[in-house]
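Inverse folding, one chain.
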């Protein structure tokens, strides 16, 4: 993804850098950055496209904004899980990686499903056995 951002940013930096330097005639001795070349280029593009050369920078800026929006949308789609987790964390809906186990049957449905019994049977929770540090993963001693 970083290569895509680099391929997107490099032409924008080059074009807008050239545009503002040549627009303000900051040429540093280079003909390429002169105001005369700036006017010539935009007049040439205006004649080719058949439009006023003064509106070309606005059209280019609009195209850059649309391209930036598409690239950011593509990036956000690829990172949608991380962005959703970040939003939930900001809103306070998610605590620090605490997972609440779901009951097999919601309490409201349990009363209706039991019928006349009226009692709720919760699933038994497994008891944690004593674990010693010298035991392996399956309970065998590591010696």
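Residues assigned per position:
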């Amino acid at each position: 993804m970083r290569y895509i951002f680099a391929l997107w940013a490099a032409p924008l930096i080059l074009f807008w850098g050239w545009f503002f330097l040549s627009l303000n005639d900051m040429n540093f001795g280079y003909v390429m950055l002169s105001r005369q070349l700036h006017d010539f280029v935009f007049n040439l593009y205006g004649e080719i496209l058949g439009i006023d050369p003064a509106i070309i920078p606005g059209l280019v800026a609009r195209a850059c904004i649309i391209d930036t929006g598409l690239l950011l949308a593509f990036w956000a789609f690829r990172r949608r899980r991380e962005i959703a987790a970040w939003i939930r964390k900001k809103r306070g809906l998610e605590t620090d990686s605490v997972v609440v186990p779901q009951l097999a049957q919601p309490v409201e449905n349990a009363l209706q499903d039991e019928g006349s019994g009226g009692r709720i049977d919760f699933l038994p929770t497994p008891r944690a056995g004593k674990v010693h540090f010298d035991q392996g993963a399956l309970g065998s001693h590591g010696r």
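The chain has a mean pLDDT of 80. The CA atoms of residues 111 and 118 lie 6 Å apart.
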